[in-house]
Structures are given as C-alpha cells and as structure tokens.
Amino acid sequence: MAQDLVVPLAPNVWRIPLVRDLVNGFALRDDDGQVTLVDMGVSSSGPKVMAALAAIGSGPRDVTRLVLTHAHPDHAGGAAHVARQTGRGFTVHHDDAAHVVEGSSPPRDRSVLLGRLLDRVTRPGRDFEPVTVEHEMRDGDVLPIAGGLRVVHTPGHSPGHVSLLHEESRTLITGDAIFNVLGLRWPVKAFCTDFRMTQRTAHVLGELDYDVAAFTHGAELRDRPREAIRRFLSRRSPS
C-alpha cells in the first residue's frame, strides 16, 4: 500500500491526504468490498482520490457511495471528476444539497468583512463543478456504510455541515467543525456561514465516543482524542 496516498486509521478506514495533511478525504470499505469515499478535496484532487482508491486495492466499480461533509470548494472541488469516474451521485445533508447541485458555496458570515467580500464573488458553477445529489442525509441517520456511519449535524460552518462517526471502528470524521492545523483550532471565520453557531454545535463532538479523531484539515489524533477535543472546547466556549 502506498503510504503517501493513504493513511490507515482503522481496519478498512483510511485518510486520503489530498493537499498534504492540510486537506483530506476518507475511504471506508465494507467487508464485501464496497467502498465509500468522503470529501473530494480541491478542483485538482479528483485524480488523487482515484489513485488512493487503487492504493487500497479497490477500483471505480467498487465505489457505491460518495459523501460530502459540506458544500465548499476545498471539499467538493474534485467531486465532479470522481463522479464521472465512478458513475455515482452524492450523499449530502439536506441543507447543503441545493448548493452542491448548483456548484456554489453557502452564504458566509456577514459579520466578517472577508465573508461579505467572498459572498460577492460566489456564483453557481464558479465555486466548483456541480454534481448530482442522489441522497440527502439528516442528523442521526446511520448510513449503511462499513457497518454504519452515523450523521452528526454540526451546522455553522455551512447550514448542512456534518461530522461522521464510524461506530464500528470508533473513528470520528470531524469535517470542518474543528481543524487540527498547528494544534486544534476553529475554522476561519470568514468561511463559515455562522461562526458562533459553529462554536456552539461543535460541542456535540465532546459527547461522542471514539478512539480516533480524523480531520478534513490536519492529521488525525489517536492519543485520547476525545479528551483533547473536550479540553479545546472547554477553553474556547462561545460567549
């Protein structure tokens, strides 16, 4: 297995470094060989996702589900390429589904100047190439993926932002609720729809049970990650 293409997190669960460790996707494989891919990185990342698929010994025909944690171009940028290669549409939370279909980011936090400026340049199809949504997920859903992938709605970064808990391997995919870049930190305010909501809803991540915390931005935590996330959240409670 090419270690530079995939990082094993648990049996049949891998992180896919798409821009070093700064932007990540994920792959999960069922016992029968079916593969689910989560997040496709930036616009140039599609081929890297497919190379990672080959690195775990699977191919496009094995992919039965594509999932996006939210509709931002650093997660959905490579989505169209992967969709064409696999022939699959996407699973996304109901509140971000329309944005995925039109290829646009949700509104940014207008209390932040950069957020207002970013909103001015957002246009359908400009942020990322539109893709088909074949399933809309909601909070508490358990997707039939590798023994069950629980949907944890953590809105704020976007209206339909989700974190995902693979209960069988006790692996949490945080999405952009929390970054692990030079330590645990919040996502950039201007990229959030509602930064204060991001801070509020992330607290649910301290209430879940997991042994590995995997981030879409930054490397995973394996040493008591729940305690580390709880400490981060307790120090940075929203006012």
From TrEMBL:
Transmembrane segments: none
CDD domains: yflN-like_MBL-fold (cd07721)
Phylogenetic placement of the source organism: Bacteria, Bacillati, Actinomycetota, Actinomycetes, Micrococcales
Annotated protein name in UniProt: MBL fold metallo-hydrolase
Top-level taxon: Bacteria
Pfam families from the UniProt entry: Lactamase_B
Metallo-beta-lactamase domain sequence ranges: 22-217
Source organism: Terrabacter aeriphilus
SUPFAM superfamilies associated with the record: Metallo-hydrolase/oxidoreductase
